[in-house]
Amino acid sequence: MKQIIIQYGGTGDLFRKKLIPAYINLLKKGHDFHLIALGRRYTEASQFMNEIIPTISEQFQNHVSYLHYDMKDPQSVIDLTQEINDRLGDECETELIYYIALQPSLYELAIKQIHDVNEGVRCSISKKIVVEKPFGFNSESAKIYNGILTSVFSDEEIYRVDHYLGKEFMQNLLIMRFHNDIIRGIWNNRFIDNIQIIFDETLGVEQRLGFYEKIGVVRDTVQNHILQIITHLTMAEPSEFSPEEISHEKIRVLKAIRPIKDFSLSRYETLSKLQGDEVRTSTYTALKFYVDTFEFAGVPIYVRTGKMQNEARSQIYVNFRNTMDRVLGDQQIAANSVIITTNPEMTIDITLNMKRPNSKWKAEPVRFNFNHADTFNVNTPEAYEQIVEKILEGDKSLFPSFEEIEEAWRIVTPTLSGNVVETYPDHTRPKTADDLIESDGRSWNA
Ligand SMILES: NC(=O)c1ccc[n+]([C@@H]2O[C@H](COP(=O)([O-])OP(=O)(O)OC[C@H]3O[C@@H](n4cnc5c(N)ncnc54)[C@H](OP(=O)(O)O)[C@@H]3O)[C@@H](O)[C@H]2O)c1
Fold first, then answer.
1. Which residues lie below 8 Å from residue 12, measured CB to CB, with a gap of 6+?
2. Domain that holds residue 295
3. Does the beta carbon of 204 sit less than 6 angstroms from any atom of ligand 1?
4. For the chain, how big is the Rg over CA atoms in Å?
5. Do 168 and 110 fall into the same domain?
6. Averages of pLDDT over each 10 residues, the chain, 446 residues
7. Using a 6 Å cutoff on CB, does residue 208 contact ligand 1?
8. Rounded Cα gap, residues 42 and 45, in angstroms
């Protein structure tokens, strides 16, 4: 069946940086679709082609067109309906995929317009809708969006994107946990002392300020990516690796997470200075979660994430209890850890204590390392390529359900009305992030 993707936000950052490379690779892999990019900033298609579409792929150039589309102008809906009908011709064996990559404040209007466009399409054809994260601003708006969405599309036709689910390391977490008996036996609160999730970026808000200002760090990453990581780290084994069973186990975890009590929000210094006192948004957060399931109750999960840090770091530390401390009386023996790194490379390290050479029974922690690229020697597709491919194929295994999203909003609700309590110098870690973990007598692994 022919597929037409209608790209809202077809001039935006996401489209340019992530979606264009994904579309190019998918065409190379043999997928066949036409893309209609919608945007305001170019009135002429030629401007769009010159400025946005890379000349490296002639194939992609032949599969993309541009339509000037201002959501505030009702004529845009008429123009888009006309454009789709012209492309369809007599061919009703076509699927329309509406992809909304806009700031969340525009979702509601976009969905209403899509409804109107769809009513005007000449034949009744198969359709899908794709919505980017964050899905809403809070619990209430997420429910409203979902109500509007489900009044036009069936749940089967709705793809809610959290591109972390398209990342190889997320899928690998489930294989590592559930396909290794030595891991299965110890992955619980009897053996794990604490978990640390550290996602630091060196970049600031840059040209995304308009978008970011209304969102802040919790809505941008914690409500979606971080909570999905936590579900993958702590969920019980699904009865099968089907989208329904995985989602069922994820929902069990999310329902068991208490609304966040311990957290801090901060903002990097030059953002405040640059914009005067107008910018109130948070760019860094540290939080503590508890998953109150039989397997994980009592294990604190510390998270720190945000912008303008000294070093880009995407790491998860699973720290095991130390029952060997002072076994030999004269030395501290390090606890074991599993360290999952996703950036710059995907690696998994397990630290084990080994005898230091030329010593009398002195132990030293040594890292046993798995490097994904070296081991499998394959070019792993980028997350968005996997996400878009699943959408084209109608496979819902990499998309959170609305129930997951709803629970995630419930968990982060206390942070949404929180104030920024610290302004940190650029490229330094906020002090409040250290306070959060040190008040429990622990420190960050990195
Ligand atoms: N950027 C990323 O790396 C990234 C990663 C993951 C998820 N996302 C998600 O993707 C979505 C879009 O983010 P983004 O970074 O691409 O935002 P962005 O760069 O600010 O782009 C926003 C897009 O919305 C269009 N737009 C704004 N007002 C419009 C109107 N009245 N009528 C028609 N079009 C309008 C803009 O068109 P004009 O500029 O032509 O006016 C532009 O194409 C967000 O939900 C975000 O969370 C982004």
1. 39, 101, 102
2. 164-438
3. no
4. 24
5. no
6. 95 95 96 97 96 92 97 97 93 92 90 93 89 93 93 94 95 96 97 98 88 92 98 97 94 97 96 72 97 98 98 97 75 91 93 93 93 88 95 95 98 96 97 98 98
7. yes
8. 7
Asked if residue 70 has its Cβ within 6 Å of ligand 1, the reply is yes
Distance (Å) from CA 102 to ligand 1 centroid: 4
Residue 397 CB: number of other CB atoms within 10 A?
A: 13
pTM of the model: 0.94
Cis omega (within 30 of 0) on the bond before 344?
yes
Structural domain contains residue 446: no
The reply to whether 249 and 373 lie within a common domain is yes
Whether residues 227 and 359 share a domain: the answer is yes
> What separation in Å is there between the alpha carbon of 146 and the centre of ligand 1?
20
Peptide bond into 134 cis (omega under 30): yes
Q: Considering the chain, what percentage of its residues have pLDDT values greater than 70? A: 98
The alpha carbon of 9 and the centre of ligand 1 are apart by a number of angstroms equal to 5
CATH number reported for the structural domain that contains residue 85 in this entry: 3.40.50.720
Tokens of residue 227, six digits: 């909570």
Write the residue with the smallest CA distance to atom 6 of ligand 1.
14
Q: Is 13 in the pocket of ligand 1 (CB under 6 A)?
A: yes
- Specify if 415 maps to a domain: yes
pLDDT in tens, 95-108: 999 999 998 889 88
Closest Cα to atom 22 of ligand 1? 12
